[in-house]
């Protein structure tokens, strides 16, 4: 019986490595968190599946082909309703955020100031309130707000 235990350990380690490699990327986790706070939509977000290793093939999402990091999120005109998740601030390489012409409400999350590569933020046509967060001053590449 003692000789079998090392094999069980190897099998367990192999199982963990296989499952870890199939886990969704951190960018995917941020987008799934964003999806979880959406109250309603036209059906686009259920196509975002947690089983996918990366979100690069999800509708409205574009990734850098080399790094597989999310650089573009465009979900305009999809009847999305709810607050904008602060977890979008975890998309460190995001260049364009287009959520215009939906029904988002609440404030603009200050965490978007962490997306220092943002060049364009398009939020018009929503029900956002409050001031523009001062953290947006960190977005030195921002050309459109």
TrEMBL record:
Signal peptide as annotated in the record: 1-23
Protein known as: Leucine-rich repeat-containing N-terminal plant-type domain-containing protein
Residues of the Leucine-rich repeat-containing N-terminal plant-type domain: 25-64
Record key words, sorted: Leucine-rich repeat, Repeat, Signal
Family annotation (InterPro entries): Leu-rich_rpt, LRR_dom_sf, LRR_N_plant-typ
Domain of life: Eukaryota
Keyword Aminoacyl-tRNA synthetase: no
Pfam families reported for this sequence: LRR_1, LRRNT_2
């Amino acid at each position: 019986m003692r000789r079998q235990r090392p094999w069980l350990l190897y099998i367990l380690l192999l199982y963990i490595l296989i499952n870890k490699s199939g886990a969704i990327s951190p960018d995917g986790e941020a987008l799934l968190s964003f999806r979880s706070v959406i109250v309603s939509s036209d059906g686009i977000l259920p196509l975002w599946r947690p089983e996918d290793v990366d979100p690069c093939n999800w509708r409205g999402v574009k990734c850098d082909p080399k790094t597989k990091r999310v650089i573009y999120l465009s979900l305009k005109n999809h009847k999305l309703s709810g607050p904008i998740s602060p977890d979008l601030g975890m998309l460190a390489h995001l260049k364009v955020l287009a959520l215009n012409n939906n029904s988002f409400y609440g404030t603009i999350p200050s965490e978007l100031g962490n997306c220092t590569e943002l060049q364009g933020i398009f939020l018009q046509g929503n029900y956002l309130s409050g001031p523009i967060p001062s953290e947006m001053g960190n977005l030195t590449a921002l050309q459109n707000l």
